[in-house]
Amino acid sequence: MVPTNSLEDSYTIIAALIQSVPHVSGMAISPRSINLTCKKVRKRLHAEGMGFLTKTLPRLGKAFDKVLTCSAKLNAAELGFKPQDGCEYPKLFGELFSQVLCPDGGLLPSPNVQCVSVLRQLLFVFYKYELPYTDEQEQIVLERFEETERELATRKAFFQKLEEDLIVRNSYRRRPIIGNDPVAIAREARILLSEVFATFDPTDITPRHGPGAVATKQRLWAKYQWSNVAERITDKYPLDAYFYASPGHVCDAYRSFADLKQESLPARVCLVPKDSRGPRLISAEPVDYQWVQQGLGRAIVDHVERHWTTRFNVHFTDQHPNQLGALLGSSQGKYSTLDLNEASDRVSIGLVRLLFPPHIYEYLDACRSLSTVLPNGKELKLEKFAPMGSSLCFPILALTIWAILTAGAPDADTRESILVYGDDVIVPTAHAANAIEQLESFGLKVNRDKSCTTGLFRESCGTDAFQGVDVTPVRLRTVWSSARSPDVYCSWIAYANAFYDKQYFPVYDLIVERLHRLYGAIPGDDMSLMCPSLRFVPVEWRPTRRRYRKSLQRLEYNVWDVRSPSINKYMDGWSMLLRYFIEHHTPPESCTDGYHHWNETDHLHDQNLFQVGSYTSRQTSMLVRRWR
Asked: Has residue 213 got a pLDDT over 80?
């Protein structure tokens, strides 16, 4: 049950958005009409609860997006809204819908793009609000995970048959592809991936620990003391070369080798908060698997982003090409965006064995978990290559998609136009139907509701575009709290700034007033302080405590900032040295292992950058007052 004060907090946000409509949309809407709309929203919110904002309005928004892609017409009654008189679109926000839709619910020949942007902001603002989810939602996620495994198991024979056919047809000889023949596409995909990995050495890696939890539940300081290293890993990555700092370390640890287990431990399924629609499922890897996966995954990412065959088409660290592709696709309709459903869970080990060259596959297979343990204690054999949680999941998923689509492309122009970022894909619209068929023929599943192949609406990598204009809404995630919280402080300052940039000034003013009432003075961007800052702050609400720091020749203010508390834990000398060798070249701004090793008092010398005894727990930030 959502508290009444939470409903009121949410209502004030949506009401401020409604009040912003005349300014942002450029439409002349009377104050009376705005007040009536606010009353309707408030009445439904109190009658239906937060589900009205997190489910009902987003459901209308998804139906509206389908209209923008020209794949459906809007029917308000079917979505639980009273229709406008003589029209199919809703009476709620009817002035805006009338500028975009025909009375029959179809798209106008010349829709008002700004009204499209405002409507999507109103409908999706609370779509990803991180409200608690139910046990039933958890169970649905787990059942879907198991069902996917069963589906992948049924396709094992299909991939084995494809592999046999490839051997018969001489798999590395190029031939013209006629239609969507899976054997021909698989053969060409194998050739493409063989070219990509021809110069890649899977043993030339620097293993390291990742940011997340591990199945064996060690914290960072305990991860460097090996108690189990699977034999299937050490067959490819020898213990002395990849798990110890030096020959001296091996010699000193030699007596403990008798106690070192060589079991292949299972991964562990974890449910982590996502939003009100339910949790996200990830699989925590055993510590020895994670160690090698991180090294191999980073090496593959670096190689693929530099290789001439893939560097313009497959991206792992930069979403901008796909975002630009979505904008270009929406302006003329020449490019379509595809989104895959359960993408990471549907790349089977059989598909990876089929497509990747043997000298790469044997290393990929050696460091993948064979099974995972569900929250109820059941151990499930994995038919997928790697679940979400493995650092190999993302790169192998992207390369598999790229190889299949590029192999099935009819010409060079189509090949060059394919962009892949994880499960976000951009292809020429003329090739979209074939691309969907090709992906699904290999067991992948295209999310047709989120794929945009018709009309002039596109979405990819967080960018929503219509007719060449960015119509991405600001989506609130972090739930507002009346108690001081570092997450709420940082998140809601970011939300306020996003609304300011989109000229929703009443919403900005509301959030700033809330923040000021709870946290006091907050700096503005024009003060150029290295701390969370707002776009604009009235003079009377700005920080007043200040000092002049002579050593830096600058004026400093006492402001709220976020700091992560350090945890000092003892590590033996060899473990410290191993960690130093792995991490000391990583600059502080790009350190992504979830632990902070530097502080503002460090000197800019290599010997002082690394803090071997200082750790920072993830998600333990706290608000502190400091001079900035």
From this structure: yes
